[in-house]
What does this fold into?
Amino acid sequence: MVSARGVIVTGGLGDIGRAVARHFAREGAALLLLDARDAAAPEAEQVAAELRALGAAAVLVRCCDVADAPAIAAAVAEAEAAFGALHVVVNVAGMMIYKPIAELAPEDWRRLLDVNMVGAALLIGEAFRRMRAGGCVVNVASVHARRTSPLVAPYAAAKAALVSLTRSAAIEGKPLGIRVNAVLPGAIDTAMLRASPNIRSGAEVIDPADLGQPEDVAALVGFLASDAAQFVTGEDVVADGGRMGRL
Ligand SMILES: NC(=O)c1ccc[n+]([C@@H]2O[C@H](COP(=O)([O-])OP(=O)(O)OC[C@H]3O[C@@H](n4cnc5c(N)ncnc54)[C@H](O)[C@@H]3O)[C@@H](O)[C@H]2O)c1
It folds into this structure.
């Protein structure tokens, strides 16, 4: 049993998830990383070792599909037993499908919404059943919740739904003393961005001055999860270097 802040990060083996985990590790948190990637892989052990070296009080990495409700419940119960209590949930897990709407199959829509929105909703439910007052949730949405580009309709819809879910959860979380906020990153230099067919084809061009780092997102998540943000809930905060606001 540890007395540190208990923090759950989904998508914790991805670029932004790892940066978020590093932020909380430096604060001495006890971390549960949930990721669809195989947690037994050497990469997962490397990430855990890095987090322990940064100061994490404990690190658990579990291979888990965020849309798999029983698996999520089991992992959260394990973390609660190991850490004593849960204080912060950060929903980072996400995926993209690049297809025109005319070619999207029903299962494309369902999978995208399951991973990017329903998974976060399930974990918020777990948090509301288990967390004490003072806890908080941060959802990593995207600027695509507000403005978007071709070929990513399910992703944009799921991220907009995640922002709406954030507002609803903040209302229900208020009497529980649990805050819920969302961050909307712009272009962040990660594997997911580099794999984008829109970027590769040149259909979407990003000025290097508008390219953020995973740490930029992690710092905002850290702020929203801190006592400095104790009066902030139900908000969706953009971190895009000003790209979306320009004419
Ligand atoms: N990179 C960007 O420019 C950018 C911009 C805005 C928002 N985002 C969002 O930030 C989040 C992280 O993105 P990233 O760029 O670090 O990408 P990434 O691909 O490095 O990380 C995503 C992680 O989520 C995990 N994941 C995918 N499906 C999962 C599932 N069903 N269950 C559990 N884990 C699952 C992946 O294994 C991966 O480790 C995503 O939600 C993404 O939509 C990214």
